[in-house]
What we know:
This is RNA helicase. The chain is of the alpha/beta class. It has 30 helices and 25 strands. The strands form six sheets. A seven-stranded parallel sheet has the order 15-16-14-17-18-13-19, with helices on both faces. Strands 20-25-24-21-23-22 form a six-stranded parallel sheet, sandwiched between helices. The radius of gyration is 30 Å and the shape is globular. The two termini are 57 Å apart. The model is unreliable at 5-26, 35-93, 109-126, 155-252, 441-461, 490-494, 775-784 and 818-826 (pLDDT under 50). It binds adenosine-5'-triphosphate (ATP). The site of adenosine-5'-triphosphate (ATP) has 17 residues, from helix 13.
Amino acid sequence: MSAEERSNFSNKISAVKQDNPSPKNENKKKDKRDRRSNHKKNKASVRIREKGSQHFVSSTVSEEKSLTNPTKSKKRKISASGQEDIVERRNRKNDFLGINDLDWSEVQVPESTFVADEENLSGFLCLEEVDNVHVEYEETATKGNTIKFKKVHSDQYPSKRIKNNASAKPEEPLPASESLKYYDLDNFDEKNLKNSTIPGDSESRSNPQSTENSEQEENDVPQIEVDQASNTIEKKYQDNKHINITMESASKEPEKVNIDAWEKFNLSSDILDGLRSLNFSAPTPIQENALPFGLSGRDVVGTAETGSGKTLAFGIPILDYIIKNRGSNVKGQLTGLILTPTRELAIQIKEHLINMSKSGAIKIIAVVGGMAIQKQKRLLAKLPNIIVATPGRLWELLSENDDYLQNIRHIKHLVLDEADRMLETGHFKELNHILTVLSQSRQNTSDWNEDKIITENLQGPSRQTFIFSATLDSSLKENLKRRNNKPRKVESESKGTMAELMQRLEFNDPDPVFIDITPKESVVETLQESKIECLTKDKDLYAYYFITRYPGRTLIFVNSIDAIRRLVPIMKLLNIEVYGLHAQMQQRQRLKNLDRFKQNPKAVMVASDVAARGLDIPLVEHVIHYQLPHSGDIYVHRSGRTARARREGISLMLCSPEELSLYRKILGKLKKVDDIPNFPIDAGIINSMKQRINLAKQIDQEEHKLQKSSHDDGWLKKAAEEFGVELHEDLLKIKDGGDNEGLRNNQHNKKDRIRSLKAQLKELLSQQLIPRGVSTKYLTSGIVRDLADRLLDEPSHNSQIMGVKKTKATEDLKSKSTKKRKKFSI
Ligand SMILES: Nc1ncnc2c1ncn2[C@@H]1O[C@H](COP(=O)(O)OP(=O)(O)OP(=O)(O)O)[C@@H](O)[C@H]1O
């Protein structure tokens, strides 16, 4: 990145800071509160600067002030000097453009971490800008604040305004706060956006969809602060957790990497630049094997271990094709469609491809559920080069707009990433519809459809297909060979299977290339697998033991959302920095939690299998299967979140007696002959942890009961109100009036008890953990191991546990599991 680019980038970031100025000391708290509430109320802010000159128009809409006086109807024009003029209302309707008709263009933020990051912050799906736009808005009693846009040429700005702004010295760069141009589209209410009407406060508060974490989310919009001296961005969340991101690559020149190993593929210079900037000196084995075919236009079905670089195995051929065929007579610009099973994965792939093709200026968008649909419509209408989508949202958009349908039929590349997952419930129906739309011989498709879709008999251009996953069945190879290019009627027993999918996909290639380089045991060589056999009731204890004994980024997989809802609060009580991730959370909260997890090297994430596939979270050290997965494939994908890109990692199964059959099933599927080794446990430490975990569980249970009774009462009261009946106090669990003092006291007692339990736990957590059986008084007397030995053992100690050497779980597993591996018989 050039010095100029770096400076622009810094300016943009610092502009965010200046938009939310630091509060003065005396009013710090109040200002912060106001700022947050303004963030909610000022749902949109548009900063538009005329390119190439020093005058600008800016507008911050949805002011609280104007909302309090809705009867005033005046039109304010924001002048180039930044000053407001009251102008006469004129009927200039036709001069104005709809918000979607403006030339929005995405702001390429050059730091990869920051791109992903920024996207998750403050509601941005991405930063966008538009130049040369005149903004007017008016306040009306009926519609609230309405904003209008008009495209202008730079010479249309009256010279008076330049004079007005003369003191700003045109040659000087704009102050940082004025150089940011963004439009926070995701914070708009979609319905209002259509009319370019700015939503009022009440609309943003009454979100009927508001589900889990919505309140927390609303109040938890992080503030970004930039310290340019130390080159760090600080994200401040309301819960006072700060995250610092060092803008390493923004300040340092990227090292020159030798990329000779890529030369044989004859890639475009933009792609080579991308590889160089990402420090990818050589292709990974799957890339080495798949690229020659992918680049020559062959259909490729590829399977390779998790974290082995499959994204670029299909991504590079698509990007390279777009760059090399620019300007050729391809209808529209839309060239590639990549379908993935999860939203986070789609966003990640989009980022990865953007980072790869920065200098190629390829338009790549993500179309996923849970994010603003209006924005996705606008981006779709602009014909991006590549769409990365989840089938549900894409189908929703395709089915309501014929133009999108027509465009999508002309794609040149179709990718099904994690193809096997997409056959599972919840994805297959939409995928089926999309494949029907893409079908080049649609006249024959009625056999395949449950809900017949009326389609035209259009012959689209030929299309290259990529199918990738870490877990594709090898029988597919046979299936691929047997298939011919004509679609066949699918036997009922193969419906919804990979076999059906292979027949549904209209490969160009009579003989698609099948590349299988998965290791014999399906998991990566650098992954160390282990297990702890324990009772279900003790799983919390063992999980706590592991994450306290081995602090490091840890992903804990569970089989149910309820388990996440139980585990996260317990771990929070134990002072663990823990986040949840599951499908019932609001999408923004999902992204935010993922973002926080990515930034904090000691964080723990408790997740459902929504995080099992594809997510490339840097440096996840441990994966814990709190509950065993139901299939060997899920085990492979979950475990694959660690030990990526040739790094080491550990996977730990907490296996209860009831899960033994599942355990056998997993081992059978993975064709393992050896039993998975037991993870070594320090009995002294685990015993000393029991009191903490029991207290945390007790507090959680008590709080849950209390919450449940007030929730039940709330529901009863509401129902009684709606039916207009009087509610007898005896029906309420928490009596808030009347003479039943005993019961009221009972509730108070419960609260007191919770407070006292919390105080006990706090006291325990404030002390360093002393392994049970170790005496701090008599340093050499110990049942398990004495403290003197422990303290003398090593100079580096785990800060939370007294006298315990700071080791990595992988080291302990290697060195301590000395017992010979048992043969495992199924
Ligand atoms: N040639 C390369 N050299 C070094 N690192 C690479 C290379 N190609 C990809 N990577 C990095 O390897 C990591 C894993 O890549 P990717 O996410 O594509 O793996 P994957 O095989 O799709 O994994 P999964 O099966 O879990 O989806 C990423 O961080 C990516 O940036």
